[in-house]
Structures are given as structure tokens and as C-alpha cells.
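Changelog entry: the BRCT domain-containing protein record was regenerated in this release. Current contents:
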Amino acid sequence: MAAAPAGGDGADLLFSLCLIAFVPSRSLPSKSIAELTTTVKKYGADVLEPDEHGRITVSQATHIISNTIDFEEYTEAMAMMVPVVTSHWITNSLSRNKQAQIRPFSPDPRMIFHNVNLTCADIPTVDKEVITGATLALGGMESKDLSRLTTHICALSIDHPKCQQAELKKLKCKIVLPHWFDDCFKLGKKIDEKPYLLPDPEILRGESKVDVAIPPSEHLEGATTALPDGPPSMLPGTRQRLTVFRKKKVLLSWDLSISSRFRDIVTELVKSGEGDIVRDVDECDMFICQYRDGEQYIRAAQQGKDVGNLAWLFYLITHDEWCSPLRRLLHYPVPRDGIPGFKDMKITLSNYGGEARIYLENLVTAAGATYTKTMKSDNTHLITARDNSEKCQAARDWNIHMVNHLWIEESYAKCEAQTLSNPKYSHFPPHTHLGEVIGQIFFDESRLRNLYYPGGDDTLGNKGKRKRKILEAAQENAYSTGPAAGMVVGRQEHQEVDVMRDDDAEYADKTMSIFGVPAPPRDKQNLVTPAKGRHVRNGKENDTPTVMSSGSRSAKDKALSKLHNLAPDIALYEKEKKRSTKDGHAPWGGKRAADQYEKAQAAAKSSSPALQGDEEEEEEEEEDVDAQRPSKKQKTGLPAVEMRVVLTGFQRWVGHSAKEEHERKKLRNMGIQIVQDNQPCDYLAAPFIVRTMKFLKVLARGPDVISSKFIEAALDSGKVPPIKKYLLKDEENEEKFDFDLQKSIARARANKGRLLWNVPIYCTAEIKNGYESYKAIAEANSAIFKLYRARSGTTIKPTTAEEDGGAPPEPVYLLSCPSPAERQLWPRFEQMARQGNMEPRVVAPDWLLDVAMRQEITFDEKYLCKNFWS
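Regenerated C-alpha cells:
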């Protein structure tokens, strides 16, 4: 446990029982994580390092800090009921001097009121209870008194003292009519407050026919169609090399209607991002297909692979960040024959425009209905964002069903036509354009499984069984109905600061039956984080009695039972990963017999003595060997590349170019390819730890680091030696540079090359070792790197704190040396930074080298140039 600061009050132990894991993302960059890590450690928390693959060890964490649910371990966190909260949970806990509730800080968008802090004014008691309960259930907070944290005041008039006080103090809170909450609850979505704002709410003016601007469709980016027209485009500023496919195996299905050139472009993008294209569904991590049928689709889905369509694949390429294909309806393969019940429907649209219209057109077609641009009497349905248009009037005259887009979205997500009698689908709030809440519906994985890939338990491997159990546990823990259906709220460790008080729970239960909002479990055992090793606490806090029927178990018991059942599967899976081939020469444990067969065949053709003796392994396992390498590689007579290695500090070839060329060919015949530092690689080989440009640049991609003696042993013996014996161990240099190599590799894999994302770093032109070297290291970690000459074109735009939203100054760095010429630049740089509301830090180059080496953003005043050489 991290040591608490000495001499403080109870706040020193605020996070003392917490083991916190951080998830890097564009919304939570590494620089923010570094600051938050320092803060939580100061208050007693431990920070969980990523595992060797750069993933979160969910079972060990008490809290996961993430500003998005788009990370691969989110489902596992839901299965284990580990709270996932935004970074604001930490700052709010510090401001309140106790751990904050977890529900209001969930990053899940299904918690529609997660940023609402409500206080009620002149509202009748019954209405207040209903509004407060439902707001709490959907992620909001409620306070009896007005404070600076209040975001919404629910009132009937502006005359109440709370409203007067808010205006007098100019608080940034919105005074809304209770009608706003009513409409939000009915739709299950948070709509814009503007028409409901006091003192002059638009909805009370009686102008229902007024035009409302079509809002932007922020949830539809890259998700308007299931079949893109062409290759994906990269976002401005996106790095050329992708990281989302690193160590991933992608299978492109036969049913994709794309040309060979199109397929080659996708293949090149995946491979350039250190991924691989495979042909066996059992090998893949991502399966890309067009339809929800076929043997490959069923097997991939049953095994828990990430199954998506081309639109999802292109979204990953464009944004270079992982997201679930179940998040957006048109990112998942479409049903070949549509959704049952839609075949005879003729549907048209009204009051939608831009991407929203394209999205709904494609959704109607994917559901199996016929979309018509114009409306005729034979139309069966009109989907509209408002009940005000010529088509709406015609629908009333011709008795055509008129619904909002929630009907088609929920029908598609639930794989069946939803009843039109649900008032949610025919609710049109006045002065509101429902296009603002389009694209927020998720798929329910359990419904997809029941309909399209049931069973399969007997054919699943250990990994597939584990994923299936995680999905089932997450589904059991999740809400089953209402706006938050499919979502899990993790258990709170401190019962006294949990999400809702007993009286709040009663309010919420009253509201559930009115608006269909899911009632949270009342079993208080579910609200207590189970003890994790050293976090055991004595006392009565965890002994709250549970009231259950004789035939049921609490959610906690079910979750724990699931985890116990997973244990043997996890053990078998880990054992299988470590299994080596019989001769002990495979570069990775557990190599498939098919790969060994290919190696033996290639060896026979090339008569290489280093690749003999695999016949026994062929007979040991009977697996599919039809997934051969492309014919272009077979023509060379060379075996498949098994290891891509970047060499640095290798002295064997210095001054011997002929020897280097010969031995490179020899290594290639063994399946080892020596590559440049800007190419995809599996390993970084060095004689010892060095702070060279090549070492630090490649380290940012998180490869295994091995000793260059591995290459020498392979060349001397003519065989590939066991890789584990040559993992680089250099305790002397680890102590010298004050870092742990294995931790740095794990962090690099978690950072995915984004350690310095959006961190501005300037460098002087005459710096020692050259500007280009530091540029390569910084850009390998996604920094914004610029040359500083104190001339036009290198200035930061002058701003004020108010223009920057009142945020504290962000640091900006200048790499410099203590020469007299460079010293003259320091005051100019500091002035430029302060005018741009940034904190200037003129540092020695060692700061960048240490940050890149540790793969963690740290700062100490010892790196400041004025201190470094003093």
C-alpha cells in the first residue's frame, strides 16, 4: 500500500483501501493519468500497473478510472462488478473529503443524468420524490441545498429563494421546469434543456408549430452505413502507424462484397499496425463479415470474438481506438433476411436530415423493410423527429403509424419489432428535435446469441468458455429493462457513501413503475466491494442482512460463483499459452501444428538443415493446414516470418557488410527477419539497456526486449533457440536509469504509442545530439514536437484562463542545453508560454529520455535546465 503523507487528518487515508487502474484514451491522456496517479498515491491508494500484455488485471482492481467505456476489459469489469468511473470521481472525492458515489461518475452513456446535480424548489412532494428517485437511478445526484456544484434547479417559477440566489450569485446552473424531467424519463434519453428554461420557457408559449433546427448527429460518426463505399480515411493528426491492431489477428469473411484491391488496402493497414490477417476462425481475434449467418460467423460469435462489419473495421482504422461493435447498430453484421415482422412494412422519414437521415434509411433497409422517399397511402409507418410536417398530417389522415426513431432503433437492437403501443415511441416533446438523441441504442448480446448463435458449449476451447462466462456474468449483473438496460454499476466499497440512501431508494422504486426506469438491486451486500487480499476489513460494515426468497441467490453470490467456475478454465488457458513445441525451439509456446507443418515443407524445399525434425509434431496434432501463406511468399521458397526483430547496439556486423548480408539471409531462412525501427516488429534486441534513439523509439511500441545474444546463438547453432532464455536482464542499467524494464514494456503496451499524446514539446536547433533524434523519440510517443527559434511560426496563440475555460495552465516543454546562445532563448520561450496560458518548463533532454524509458510521464524540478547543470 502506498504510504500516506505524514501528519495529516483523515483525508490522508481517503483512498487507502483502493487499488486503482487507469485506462489511457484520447479523453484521458497519459499526462492526466500521471497527475492523477501522483494525487491518489498521496492519499494512500495503490496504482495497478498493466500486465505484461498491457491489459488491466480487473480481478485485482477496486476501481477502474476511465472516461470512456470503449476499452476491451469493460465487459469483464461488469462481470466482476468492479466500479468503472471517470477521472472526476477522484477530484470530487477530494473536494468532499470522502469517497464520492460511483453511479454519477460512470462513463456509460446509458446513465443519462450522470452530469446532473439536482436540487428542487417549489415542487409538490410527490413529484419531487418521483423526479429525485429517477434522477438518482440514472446517474444523477441530489442535494437539498443550492451549492456551486448544482447543475439543475427544478422549479415552477423563478420566484423561489433558490432561484433568486442562483441568479444573484451568477451560478452556472439551469433552472428548468419539471416537464423536462418528465420528457427525459418518457424517452429514456436526455434532451436539450433550452425549451424548458425559466423564466421564459418556450414550451409554455403555445407555439408548437415553430421551426426547430436539425441538431448535429454526434453519435453517428462513422456509423451511418453497414457497407462503406471505399477504404477508410484517417482523421487529421492521426499517426501513420495504427496501434488498434497491435498483436491482433483479423479474419476477413468470404461474404464481404469488396474487390481484391480493396481487400489488399485493408490487409496492408492491419499489417502496418503490427496486426495480422489470418484464414482460420479459431485463430482470429476480430472477425469481419457482412451477414449474421454462416459457419464462420456462428463459431466466431460463440467463442466471444469481436464480430463486426466493414463499417466497424473502418471506424477502428479512422479513430485508432478500440470500441465494441455492439455499441453502434450498423457496426454489427446485418441479418440476411431482416428482422422478423418488417418484411411487409413500407417506411418513410420526416424531419431528419444529414447523417441522421442516411443512418435511418440504412437501418430501415437492414431491418428488412422497404424505404420510400415519398409518402403514399400504401406506406405503413412514418418515422419522424417531430409531429409537425406535411407528412405527419398525411399520416393522421391516412391512419399511418407515426413513431419516432427510437422504435426502429430498439426493434433492430432487440431483433424483433417493438409494439407500437409503447408511449415512448409516439412521444414528441414540443420545441425539441429528437435527432439530438439518435444513435444511442446498444445491442443486447444475449438476444443476439439466442437468435443467431445459440449453444456451441461443447466446441468451445478454454478461452471461448471463459469469454462466454464473462458475458453471462455481466448480463446477470446488468439491468434488464429501462434506459440503462445492459449496464452494470459496480459495488461501492464504503457502504455509507453508496449511491442512494434508503429513502432515495424508495423514491427511485416509485419512479421505476411510472417511467420504466430499472430499479437497482436492494440487496445491500451487492453494494459492498468484496475483500481483495490485503484489503480485508473487520467489523459489521459488511454484515448487512440480505432478504431473499428461498429459491434465489444474491447477485454477489452469483458473481462470485461465476468467478470460481472460471478458475480452472483460466488455469488451463494460461498453461496452454506457455506450452512449447516438442523440440523446444519454437519462438512462442503453443505453436499450432499447421505452422510447424508449413515450416517443415518450406525447409524441405530450401534444404535448410535448421528447419528439420518437425515430423513428430505434425503427427501430434491434426489441424487444418489449408490456411497457407499467400502465393507470393511461397514463390520465394522462404519459410513464413515468425519473428521480426529490430537490432540496436549489435557489434557483430560493424565493418563487415558482406558478413551482415550473408547472416541476414541465414536468419531469414530460420523465419527471423531483421527489420528497421520504423517497421512492425515483435522483438527489440540489444546487448544491454541503452538510451539510444532506436531503443527508445521502438520501446514505445511495447515489443519484448531480448538480448542480442539470441541472434548470435541462432547464427552459431543454425537453429532458433528458446526465446525465454534470452529475455534481456540488465539490473545494473535498470538501477542506473531508475526504472523497471518489464514495467516499461507493460506500460508501453497499455499506452499504445500515446504516452505523450497532445503534449507540446519544443526543441532548440543547436541541441546536443541533434534535433532529429529527439523528434523521433517524441513522435514515437505521439508528442507535438516543434523546432524553436524564437521566430514567427513557433509561437503559442495568446489566450487567457477564461478563454481556456478556467482550466489551470498546461505544461509546455523546451528541450535545451546550457550554452550561452540557448540561454538567451529561455526568457522568450517562457514569455510566449505564459501569454498562451501555459506553464513553461525549460528542461534538459534527459527529461524526454527518462519519460520514454519509463513509459510514464513524470516531472521533477531537477530536470529544469537551471537546476540540471548547476
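The first strand starts at residue 19 and ends at 22.
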